[in-house]
Specification:
The complex is a heterodimer of chains A (about 375) and B (about 260). Chain A has a domain of about 140 residues: Rossmann fold (3-Layer(aba) Sandwich), CATH 3.40.50. In chain A, β7, α13 and β8 form a beta-alpha-beta unit. By secondary structure, chain A is of the alpha/beta class. Chain B has about 260 residues and is an alpha/beta fold. The chains are: A alpha/beta (about 375), B alpha/beta (about 260).
Chain lengths: ~375, ~260
Amino acid sequence: MSTEEPRVIKVFEDLLETPQNRLVEQASQDGRIPIGYSCSFVPEALLMADRLFPVRLHAPGVAGTELADNYLSSLVCSYTRSILEFAMDDRYDLIRGWVTVPSCAHMQRFIDNLEYLKRPDFIHVIDAPRKVNESTLKWHEEELHMLADKLSSHFSVDMGKASLMKAIDEWNRFCVIMNRIGDLRKTPNPPITGSEFHRVVMASLASPKDLILPHIEAFYREIENRESTRKYRARLMVVGGHLHDPEFIRIIESQGGLVVADRFCTGSIPGLIPVHVNGDPIRALAEHTFEKTLCPRMMEDFDRRLNNILDTVKEYRVDGVVIEIIKFCDLWGVDSMPLVSALRKVGIPVLKLEREYRTTGEGQLRTRVQAFIESMGR
Amino acid sequence: MFVAGCDVGSLSAKAVIMKDENIIASHVIFARPEPAESARTVMEGALNKACLTMEDISYCVGTGYGRNSISFAQAAESEIACHGKGAQWLKPQVRMVIDIGGQDAKAIRIDETGRVLRYAYNDRCASGTGRFLEVMAGSMGIELNDMGEVSSQAKNPVSLSNQCVVFAETEIISLINAGRDLSDIVGGLHKALSHRVASLARSIELESEITMTGGVAKNQGMFKSLQEALGVKLVCMDTDPQIIGAVGAALMARQAAAENG
């Protein structure tokens, strides 16, 4: 029984301090090829083939976006602004290729400016469909084939079936261990906090999976038999788009909430699910992409997004849902309105928070969360 | 048994001391740069008025933005919960509280026990806050406390097109230069602020019994203007509306002291 932070957590903290951590540096020095990506519609497993490895673009510690502000309108979200700032400031200098999805107009502006300002040797935009059906699945499969071919010819990497199957197998091993850790959060006294879990997820998304896996396994061994005596007033689920900074969750938890489930772009639900291959691996990756993304950019898919939250609330015994939206995010801004109503209609308390990409306004955030937990009668 | 509530806000700090069912002392000061210092000073003021020392206080609850810096408080609660609790205790029929503080405005719906049901909060923009009035008073060269009286003379309140504090200040200077009457300008300011706060309150559905708390509630011009914007007669507090949060904190302290024996 312990309320102490797991010892291994420090490793993940360190890996989150820079946009290109020491594992990325190590892999690059070994001749491997880091590919930057910014959206869950990019199939990470595809970017794990042969010498490639994916690095989720994040901007830890971003203090200002003076460079990016010259090129982006004031209504573009602070996430887009922050990663363009880091790109312009050569903070992603190890990244050798960029794979993006114009999931929203803001991200399209990032891609346009990146191409115009940095002229990268390799940049690929996946034209991901906005509906899920058999035709769009075929479309997405073709898109992934195009990407695989382009990667293969540009970087001289093996994107053949055996190579992809090996990459998928590694992705699946990563997902299995992450899901085991995630399952521990369903218990009445989870051995880890939401902030600790998020540090592991974010560090993993920004690192070569094979190099970070031993740390994740060590982390799991350390916590699997722990039972926390930490007191909490309410079990919370966080829902929304990009959330990179674990500090945001730490502040929520400082007010007596325990974040047990994370349904956001950089969370584990449903982002970290294994790929099921039954034939062509590219086809499997196309299916997997649709399965693991519950993004408001997708049309006629609201019920699936809502039901995923409702199922998670039951499975993780969630008392209340916190919806976090980066200011000016059109997709989440619109989707959150019916989402709030639908959740309240079935009696789930909801707190909607508008925020900036980096965590700011700690005092206001604390007050809102504390009042939310109080309003739940806890 | 004596209990206390200490509310350290951005512009002012408030302390209330209660014995049983009665408020026996309260004190309000302008906030100091350090929240801890504000808390100490305001509590000393309240203790002096009650002829008590801190050792006499069985339990103290802190609230407000500085609530985590109050060393002598045994617990910290959000100002949203405290305003709800305090307002309902003083006026049991109240089901909605509109608190306009120095750096934020809140609309809080409560149940018959004072528990918060829903709330809306504006803390990202100064235009719906007491700070808005303070800046405007400064630009017009009048005292903040005189704004209510000045606005009572308004015959034709101006219509302000800017909600942003910075641009509204520029607009007011233009209106002064254009020779508009100060009372009409102040009346227009109250109207603009009221409509913004009323819209915040409507976002969580209005109740019929609404009161206004916080320092701005002392401004009769603002009180009247908010009534008009909401289309509801507000419940008037008999107690200083600025100390309602501290009263709520003291009530929570009383409850905690009773539970802890």
